[in-house]
Amino acid sequence: MMEVTNSNSTSNSCIHISTTTPEIRKSLITVSIIFHFLIFLLGVLGNGLVIWVTGFKMKKTVNTVWFLNLAVDDFLFTAFLPLSVTYTALDFHWPFGNFMCKLNTTISFLNMFASVYILVVISVDRCVSVVWPVWAQNHRNVRRVSCVSLCVWVVALILSAPYFIFRDVGPSYHNKDIINCFNNYALSGDEDTYNETHQAMIITRFLLGFVVPFTVIVLCYAVIIHRLRRNRTLANQSSRPFNIIAAIIITFFLCWAPFHIMGLIEMANHMPEYSSEILDDITIIGLPIATSMAFLNSCLNPLLYVFMGQDFKSQVHKSIHNILETAFQEEEKRSYIYTNATTQNNKKLESDTQL
Questions:
Q1: Considering the domain boundaries, does residue 253 fall inside one?
Q2: How far is CA 158 from CA 81, 161, 198, 205, 290, in A?
Q3: Residues 132, 53 share a domain
Q4: Domain shared by 302 and 325, yes or no
Q5: What is the pLDDT of residues 63-105, one digit of tens each?
């Protein structure tokens, strides 16, 4: 998701790092590689487990459909993360071709837009359930929620499409042997067009990917909190799912807010009237950190489910239990030729009793 530039572009801090602060650049690269690799492992395993449990082990409900979509979104992003790790490890040399350059960045922003708009519809859903419980009970069902989820994915894909269009590959400004994957907003080579498009992309991303959705979320939860304070019985019934969803939203806000703020600072730093060494230093250090925090969000939701959701924990425990039971049965079949039938049946009975 971090952008780099070449001779046709001046849009990112990575080149600044390589020319002004090589020690900081080296440290940030090392930390980023390790951090992103850990996020990849935790994200793929954690979200894969959530997909398995909510998709195959738990009864389909409105909440499990929401959580399943969040998990699929984060799993898709973390599955592509090794490409970014490789890119960083190769000193921002992109060996995977133009199409994968476009696809990798598009997946990153698809993750951002899909996540935040799934949180929006979850918040609206919770608000409707609290304010109009009878209507919600009669109209909320898995089929309708699945249709809403599909619409969210379509909207997120549309908002991510410009990144597929503008992402490009080209030789680095400082080393022609290094191929950068960068945002080529000036496809015609016009510097003025580049600046205008760059600003439009960042402002649009900030408004549609952060300000507008979180305004809706805050309004929904303001209504929810006001209603729950007036109805203690309803508050007790809604406490656990409310707390889980609220934790997911707060975590998303804390992880993505620095990224959007750094995007605005970077945009200002490339405007002649605001450009300065201070903003340059802030961008050099802050953008990689903010990007890593945004990546981190994709592996945190499974941890929230485990620590806050009793139903999810019980299903995970049961699923692991079934895996172990299956493994024991396979081991018994392999050892059958070395034992007689009576001994085998006794062992199976003893194993089943212990489990």
A1: yes
A2: 22, 5, 18, 12, 24
A3: yes
A4: no
A5: 889 989 999 999 999 999 999 999 999 988 999 999 999 999 9
